[in-house]
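Milestone 3.1: sequence recovery, worked example.
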């Protein structure tokens, strides 16, 4: 990577490019971090929107973590399962617990992966569980969100669209 980028990899409060980022430790497995250690969830506020990226969270959030996280407007939550990330049911529990206004699913199998070799599930399994939550589908891998896009009643799932050249 050109230049001297700053690598954030542990819990704490950091300043980077004018943003205050807070890293919160969450187990990266379902046995209290004893198998894969801890994951760092990142939260920050950008343009008045409280953002949370859970990274590879696999353990249920506890009340202490919820207090540190607060209520995100936008949450990126893993949904594909495997040993290091929420499966669809666990992702739904995290979504219900956090009550984010917009949720972006992460860590799921896409068309780019070989289904025989990939140990994570496609996003559709999560969406089936969330059938009562509105879904917005972006036409590409970039979205622009302003505070006016945040629902005042309920939540929405935001899906991205990726162009695979294979």
């Amino acid at each position: 990577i050109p230049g001297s980028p700053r690598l954030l990899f542990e819990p704490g409060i950091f300043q980077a490019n004018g943003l205050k980022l807070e890293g919160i430790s969450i187990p990266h497995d379902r046995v209290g971090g004893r198998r894969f250690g801890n994951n760092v969830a990142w939260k920050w506020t950008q343009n008045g929107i409280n953002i949370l990226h859970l990274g590879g969270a696999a353990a249920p959030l506890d009340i202490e973590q919820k207090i540190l996280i607060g209520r995100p407007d936008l949450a990126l939550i893993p949904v594909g399962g495997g040993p290091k990330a929420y499966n669809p049911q666990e992702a739904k529990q995290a979504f219900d617990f956090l009550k984010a206004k917009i949720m972006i699913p992460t860590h799921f199998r896409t068309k780019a992966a070989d289904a025989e070799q990939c140990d994570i599930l496609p996003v559709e399994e999560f969406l089936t569980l969330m059938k009562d939550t509105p879904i917005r589908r972006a036409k590409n891998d970039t979205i622009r969100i302003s505070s006016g896009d945040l629902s005042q009643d309920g939540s929405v799932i935001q899906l991205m669209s990726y162009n695979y050249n294979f």
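The radius of gyration is 16 Å. The chain has one domain: 12-159.
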